[in-house]
Write a structure and sequence with these properties.
Mean pLDDT: 96
Strand content: 15-25%
Strand order of the largest sheet: 3-1-2-4-5-6-7-8-9
Helix content: 25-40%
CATH class: Alpha Beta
Distance between the termini: 25 Å
Number of domains: 1
Shape: globular
Oligomer: single chain
Largest sheet: 9 strands, mixed
Amino acid sequence: MIRVCEIFESVQGEGLTVGVPSLFIRTGRCSVGCKFCDTKYSWNSGRDYTAEELRKIVEESALPDVIITGGEPLEEPEIDRVLSEISEVKTVRRITLETCGHFYRELPAEKLHLVVSPKPLTMEVEFPFTEVSKFLENYRDVELKFTLFSEEDLNRIKEFLKTYRELVNFPVVLQPLHHPQEEYRETCRKVVKMVLKERELLSQFEIRVIPQVHKLIGVK
């Protein structure tokens, strides 16, 4: 069983696969407690589904991309079984699992695209350096997606990238954080200006600034 608070179809609004039509499975448990989380309803809500129930939903949807997000999917004890079941669905091309990186786990890797998204200092949670590095060491298909709002957030990201530079093989996504005290488009403009100043960072890594597009266009 895993707890799920909602299942819906939309387009991926974030990261390297932005715009891809997908089936979303949002888990309903998270203990991290990010201050400005935009899905706090997923911290403790929903109902339990079996892996077989979720497989059937995926089969009926027939969308080739499935996104498991949260909440925090890696807090679900049977998430590995769910991944195995969904990977056997013939119509599924890719399973994206989104995690904040606080809880390293070994998972079935078939069709798996991991998005590891450590939260910034602005969120007032610990930045999980060691745990995130384990994902980079042990999985082939890992997308790093860092949210940020301030210069301090960017400095922490640079610290991580400098420390684990040899493990970073994919483009690095910098995602402006949706902060309740600032209009999102303004935050996006601010982050773009911050990043453009970072010539050393831009020369060492393939950086992509990608906002949460679904919020800009008004879809779920």
